[in-house]
Every structure is written in structure tokens, then in C-alpha cells.
Amino acid sequence: MNQKIFLCENSIEGIFTGVYNIWESRYPKDSIKLSCEQEGNYELFSEYINVNTDMIKADKVARTIEQRFGELNYTNIYQAACSYEKDKANAIFRTIQYGLTSKTPRRLMEHLKDDNICRVFELSRAVGNESHHLLGFVRFKELTNKILCAVIEPKNDVVALIAPHFSDRLPNENWMIYDKGRRLAVIHQGGGQWGIIKSNEFNIDFFETVSEKEKEFENLWRGFCDSISIKERENLKLQRQNLPLRFQKDMVEFQR
Amino acid sequence: MLIQEKMSVMEKLEILSDAAKYDVACTSSGVDRKGNGKSMGNAVASGICHSFSADGRCISLLKILFTNECIFDCKYCINRSSNDVKRASFTPDEVCELTMEFYRRNYIEGLFLSSGILQSPNFTMDLIYQTILKLRTEYHFNGYIHVKAIPGADSELIQRLGFIVDRMSVNLELPTAEGLKTLAPHKNRKNILKPMRQIQSQITQSKNELMIYKNAPSFVPAGQSTQMIIGATPENDYQIVSVAENLYDKFNLKRVFYSAFIHVNEDSALPALPGGPPLLREHRLYQADWLLRFYGFKANELLSADRPNFNIMLDPKCDWALRHLENFPVEINRADYYTLLRVPGIGTKSALRIVKARRQAVLDFDDVKRMGVVLKRALYFITCNGKMMYKTKIEEDYITRNLLNLKERIPIDVKEAGYKQISLFDDIRFNPHPEIVDHMQSIYGQI
């Protein structure tokens, strides 16, 4: 029998809509694959079905997952959907399918013997690790208009995962975190809410117009980072292991 | 002594962070505190590392001394009164501004404030208290604060400070009272243990109050820690680990930090360390520390009076397992959590995952590998469904040799000194034991 491949948008809403459409289609699930890749190599003997992202459908799936599997499992699936790996959509679809037929759906992520669940677990762990790293490695610069700006280039789509932390920490500041690779920005208004904007038209030149005090504090910070290190223990390999180079290029203490 | 009146904040920061760098603790963990929507800051229980310095250590707090002027003359310390080093002091406002501005830019997770002893312990403790109070009330800082309690300061001061900080620590400095007497003539063990005991009992008291009154102020919510210098005095590892175990059991400490002794002063009472600071020894002590806190080991299981020091070639857990081969192999699908924890290559997280996952299905080597078990170490000690992964022998020499081949990063001088004297005739090349690869090749007929 022909395989049916559902092609969805590479976003959490896209994947959840794909899952909704798969159930709606009533095809036997064994011959279905969910993919969020852009058309690259088409597989032989497969029928491709496009999925149009639909917020209402995605919301229904999200709610089902949260109610049936519990918050912890939902977080795991949500984080896996933020991964940059291509096989995430299918692993998530299979995990949801497993959960809906399981007798212990609230223990879904404990079934690590299952390949797809284990994959979702791995993806979620990788995304969780990167977003935890970025909670520390994000560096804000103060612009002339007192707005704090940070540029990051994460592998995974983590801006939405780190935004609540900064919103809780800096409630009265105007700040934004810009994901250069995805052209996504989280914007937070002092005393208000945060939101995500996606646009190809961001002009990041204005990030260079930093305030007068900014240079002073950057220098103080660089001086601190130098003097806090113990020469007798120098170990650049360990430093690189703990703080990979891909993060270092966006951090002031390494920009000299 | 030359005291400069006008010193820039930059110079002060350099001097006073340089002076604070020998304090090990830079953790920002232990307390979850949401932001309150008004002031700046929150705290995350897992702790957050914000950067890593060139020595590979985490930078998470703005670690500074309030002043490096000191009336004490501890022989190991760069700031001792008899040293001719540049002295500087911050003003409370400078500390507050630095903290706030660094915190806003997400450079740091909070403040670590220690100090040399200015005039008297009480005077210094009060200075620290005034600074922290200013930071909390005038600057509305709600992030993580770690302060040093100064031994000999009034218990009243320590109590007041405890309610506005997250973590407090009193440095044990040296593992034994005798060591302290020779190297730190102005300090004594009793003075150090007194504030430690006070903080412990007030933490307990505060926790009890919190159970009854939801809004009672919490005292040092992230717990207390301490640190001791390793290698400045002749204590062996067994003594050090026993001291640490006692501190965890009797004082409820959150962490004990070990700091490899670094030769900063010339003094006849200090050992010469031609090989640099004893970093590998420090590393082994931290490994053992984790075994004490999370793996249910006791100090006297890891070491004994006859074997007072750690094996430099093997980590303490492997070393323990090799001396207790009668407990192995362990069956992954049946052994209880605490037995799994004792297998080299299995950590607390992977052990928990195994225990949960095997309720649903029978596990195999591939599965446990994906769950985070380090098979290259664990494979000698476990079975899945009654089978070993390869045809390995449960034999001390054999496993030791294979584990040492894993090339854990051991400094060359240690490696060349050798694990044991190898004679011409027991060299493995003369009578080779089959390696894992050989087994694989014989299975696939490649020999």
C-alpha cells in the first residue's frame, strides 16, 4: 500500500495541525508519516498531502495532549517541537498516537523503550539544555533609548521558551531578544506583556547605537572576567567545553 | 602602606575581584523565587551559569570582596596583613550599582560578597549588612545574594543578615584544627563552627515557622556552604572526606567546596608545589563528594585508614566497584534503584529513567545507552536479561586495564608514573587478552 506523507509547516502549530488532519483523514496510521521538511527529495510510492496550519485545530490538539497526558508530558512534546532536527514531526505524531492508546498516558515519557518516545525525550532534552544555557548566556546591550537588546543564534527555536524567565526577572525594563537565524524577536514592554514578532525586515543596525554608560559597563565586565580567572589553573579546553564557541561570539566578554 | 584616595571603579573592581577569586563557591542554586513584578530579579533553583572564565570555572555571581584590607595574617592568603599588595575598598553604593547594572544586562545571577577583616569582625559584618540592606531596600534587588559570615561577628548581626540573603557560608579554611592553628594564627576552629551552628539552627527554625505562617520571612533559604583548602596541610583524603561527611550530617550543609592550594605567598610553613596546584586530587574529592551526597556512599566505604588516599588513575566509584566485584554484575531489569546507583557509568538521572522505563518494557543495552548510561564504563558491571554486553570477565585486573584504556584526561606526569610497576613478563603485549574489538571480530569472522 502507498505511504501517505503529511507535509506540515515547521512550527508547533503546523505539527499539531498535521496531527489533527491525520486523525481526521482516518487513514490507517501505520502507513502515515508526518514531515515538516520543505520539499526536498520526494519519496517513491508515497502520496503527499499538504497541511494548512490552522490555529483552532492546533489548539485542540494541544489541549488534548495537556489534558490526557498531563503538563509534564506536554512540556516535553512542546520542547521537542522547538527542535531544529527534521525528524521531530514524525516522532511527535507517533508519541501522541502511542499515548492515546496507552493505558498509562500520564506516564507517557517514561516509556523510553519505544523509539519514537525516546526520540522525543532526546529532542526535548537538547532543546531544554540549550534554552537553559541561554538563560545565562544572553547578553543585553543598553541602547540610547534605554531599551535592552540581545542577539542570539540558537540551534533550536528557543526564544519562546526563555522569554517567560526574562519577563519575570526584568518586569520593568523594555527589552528584546532577537534570534538572528530565524529572524524572530521577543519584545517586552516595561510593566507589560511580551510577544513574538517574525519579520524579514528587522534592521539590526540600530543595535549599534548603544548608550554612553554601556561601553563603560562592558569594559568593567571584561575586566572582571579577566581578573576572576586563576592563572595557575588556566584551562581553555574546559572553558570551551562548558561554553561552546557558538555562544561565545554573541557575548561581550569575548568580543574585544 | 600607600593608600590611594581616588581610585576608579575599574581599578577597584580589578583588585577586589582578583582578591576574591580564591573563593570557590560561585553557585547560584538552591532557591526558587519568582519575581514580584516590581523590583528586578528572581532566583532559579537549578542555578544559572552566566559565563566561564579562562580557568574553566563558572561565573555566575559578581564575586568581590568589599575590601581587601585585613587585620588577619593567614599564611596561605594573598590579602594577609603582612603582604604588600594594593588595597582598595568599595563604597556600598558602588557595590549596589555594579550589581544592578550587571544584572540588568544579564551578566550575572547575583552578588557574592566577602571581605577582608577591617578593624574587627563586627565592624566588617556590619559593613556587609548595610551594603546588602541598601541593595535590597533602596535598589530593590530581588536576585541571588551569597555572603560570607565572618567568624567572630555578633550572632545578632548574622541573624539580621540571614533574613535578607539567599546563602551564607563560613569558611572552614583547613580540614583540621591543627592545620588552622599553624597557618591561620588569628582564627580558631571554635569561632568558625559557632556561626555555622547558629545558621543551621536558624534555618531549621525558619523552616518550621514557614510551615505554620505562610508569609514568615525565610532565613538563608538556599542553605549554607563552606570551603577548605586542599594540599596546604598534610591531611590525607580520608580525613578530608570524613570531615565533609560530618559537615553534611551534623551541620546540614548544602555544599562543601574544595580548593586546591595555590602558592601565592612565600612562607616556610607552606608546602612547595613544583607540579602546580593539586587539581586532580581536588577533582577526585569532588567526585567523592557527589557520591556522599547523591549516591548513598559513606566515607568509610570509599576510603579507610589503610587506604587513606584516592586512586589517582580511577574515579572513586570505579575504584569502589573494582574492590567489590562480588556485588556485580547487576541486572538492569531487576536491581533496585540504590544498587543501580552504585554501578560505574550510571548516574542518578539514568538510574531513575531505568527504574521507570522497565515497568513498561524489558530493557536492552541499546535502550539504556539512549537513556544516558555511559556504557563504556558500565558494560563490565551490568547484565540485560541475564546477558553481559560482550564476553567480559568479572576480574579486577582485566576490568582495570580496560577502564584505563578509556583515556580519562589524566595529566601526563601522573600517567607516566604508572598505575603499578609493570614487569617485562606481565606486559599485555606478551599475553594479550582479547579486547572488545577482538570479540566483535571473532563474532563477525573477521579474524
Overall description:
The complex is a heterodimer of chains A (about 260) and B (about 450). By secondary structure, chain A is an alpha/beta fold. Chain A has two domains: about 5-130, no CATH class; about 140-255, no CATH class. In chain A, about 45% of the residues lie in helices and about 15% in strands. Chain B has about 450 residues and is of the alpha/beta class. Chain B folds into two domains: about 10-265 and about 275-300, Alpha-Beta Barrel (TIM Barrel), CATH 3.20.20.70; about 315-445, no CATH class. Chain B has 17 helices and ten strands. In chain B, strands 3-4-5-6-7-8 form a six-stranded parallel beta sheet. Chain B is globular and about 75 Å long. Residues about 410-430 of chain B have low confidence and may be disordered.
Task: Summarize this structure briefly.
Chain A is an alpha/beta fold.
Looking at the structure, the CATH topology of the largest domain in chain B is TIM Barrel
How much helicity do the residues of chain A have? Answer: 40-55%
**Order of helix and strand elements from N to C terminus of chain A:** EHEEHHHHEEHEEEHHH
Low-confidence stretches of chain B: 409-432
Q: Level of helix content of chain B?
A: 25-40%
CATH superfamily of the largest domain in chain B: Aldolase class I
Task: Note the overall shape of chain B.
Answer: globular
- What count of domains describes the coordinates of chain B? 2
Mean pLDDT of chain B: 88
CATH class of the largest domain in chain B: Alpha Beta
Question: What is the count of β-strands of chain B?
Answer: 10
Largest sheet of chain B: 6 strands, parallel
Indicate the low-confidence ranges of chain A by residue numbers. Answer: none
Rg estimate of chain A, integer Å: 22 Å
Proportion of β residues of chain B?
A: 5-15%
Structural class of chain B: alpha/beta
N-end to C-end Cα span of chain A: 61 Å
Question: Biggest chain pair contact, residues each?
Answer: A-B, 56 and 59 residues
Q: Round the Cα radius of gyration of chain B to an integer and report it.
A: 25 Å
Could you tell me the mean pLDDT of chain A? 91
- Largest sheet geometry of chain A: 5 strands, mixed
